[in-house]
Design a protein that fits this description.
The protein is an alpha+beta fold. The protein has two helices and seven strands, in the order ααβββββββ. The strands form two sheets. It has a four-stranded antiparallel beta sheet, with no helix packed on it. The chain has a three-stranded antiparallel beta sheet with strand order 3-4-5, with no helix packed on it. Helix 1 packs antiparallel against helix 2.
Length: 392
């Protein structure tokens, strides 16, 4: 009985070993199929990623060229606006100089007209004074002639009276008559001399008054001309000073505006340059990150016999660790991962470029011992996701 039991037991063990070998061979075949399928999927994904990467690089290069062209056009526009500002400044400068020259000529002509007018007024006043003096001299001459005629008539009447009286008076002697006649003639001559002296004094006095008024009017005219000349020079100096002040002010203002525009142009150029560089760096980072190209779910499995657990280590970014799932059942560890990749880029024309990618990975890992699905812990250390699975 014992022998038959031993034989039966040996037979069962041999059958169990054959079954185990068969299962192991079957498992190896499945593993090879899975590995072949995995390699095929890996090659397809790699090809797709390379094609997509090439498309992204082409699009990115095209956008960079387009952006560079836009920047060059914007720079040309800024340079054109700066040249327009310079041209407007030169035109404004020419116009101001021309207006100042015309105003100077106009003021000079007005000043010349005022001087000519005042000179004409002074000449007219001088002619009036001369005419009045001539009239007064003629009047004095007429008065002198009238007085001379009156004296002559008086003398004649007196001589006639004397003659008549001498005829009446026979007792007058010839000598007495001559004396009286001589006395009357002397008296007439003295009267004439006195009258001439008075007329001469009157003429001298009138001439002095005329000369005095003429000198006074000449001084007033000269003072007026000098004052007008000084006022014109002062106005010309003020206009020149104001023009220079406004010209320098406008010149400095235009220079400051030009410097501000140049600074803004450089700043805009730097901002666009940094923006393009940042976008390119971001795209390059996303493209060069191997995690976003291809992921290999072949974690490191360690059998910790002392703690009676399996330790599974897997390199994955920390922000993607939440998408990794582990299911432990019997002698199999099933590792799954769902990855969503989305990138949105805003272009200058307001459009958006969106890239969406959804990937799922599943890896089955056989183990020697039966595992306990309730004793699974998860942690993240030094860039690795670590699972600890207790044994049953």
């Amino acid at each position: 009985m014992k022998v038959s039991d031993s034989i039966q037991k040996n037979r069962s063990q041999r059958e169990f070993k054959r079954e185990m070998r068969r299962l192991k061979d079957k498992q190896e075949i499945e593993i090879q199929k899975l590995q072949a399928e995995h390699m095929k999927r890996k090659a397809n994904i790699s090809i797709n990623n390379q094609a997509e990467l090439q498309n992204l690089r082409s699009d990115h290069d095209f956008k960079i060229r387009k952006q560079v062209q836009r920047n060059e056009e914007a720079l040309k526009g800024i340079e054109k606006s700066l040249q327009d500002v310079k041209d407007r400044t030169e035109k404004e400068k020419t116009r101001i100089i021309k207006d100042l020259s015309q105003e100077k000529e106009l003021r000079s002509a007005q000043h010349k007209l005022q001087i000519d007018k005042r000179r004409l007024d002074a000449q007219l006043k001088l002619d009036d004074i001369t005419h009045e003096a001539n009239i007064e001299a003629q009047k004095i001459q007429r008065e002198n002639l009238a007085q001379k005629q009156s004296v002559t008539n008086d003398n004649r009447r007196e001589i006639s009276r004397i003659k008549s009286s001498s005829l009446r008076k026979k007792d007058y002697t010839k000598e007495k008559y001559e004396k009286e006649t001589l006395a009357e003639e002397n008296k007439y001559i003295k009267a004439i001399q006195k009258l001439r002296k008075r007329n001469k004094e009157t003429l001298v006095s009138e001439d002095k008054n005329y000369q005095k008024k003429l000198q006074q009017n000449t001084r007033l005219h000269n003072k007026s001309v000098e004052r007008l000349t000084k006022d014109q020079q002062a106005k010309r100096t003020n206009l020149k000073r104001e023009f220079e002040k406004h010209f320098h002010k406008d010149f400095h203002k235009n220079n400051n505006t030009m410097k501000t525009l140049v600074g803004r142009k450089e700043k805009i150029y730097q901002i666009l340059k940094e923006d393009i560089r940042a976008k390119a760096q971001r795209e390059f980072t996303l493209k060069e990150d191997p995690f976003y190209h291809y992921i290999d779910l072949q974690p490191e499995v360690v059998n910790d016999a002392e703690n009676k657990e399996y330790i599974l280590k897997f390199k994955v970014p920390e922000y993607e660790a939440k998408n990794v799932k582990l299911v432990a059942q019997d002698r199999e560890l099933r590792l799954s991962y769902d990855r969503n990749y989305k990138h949105v880029q805003n272009d200058e024309d307001g459009s958006q470029d969106t890239i969406n990618k959804v990937e799922s990975y599943i890896t089955k890992i056989p183990v020697e011992d039966i595992v306990n699905s309730k004793k699974v812990s998860k942690s993240y250390e030094q860039g690795q996701l670590i699972y600890r699975i207790g044994k049953a």
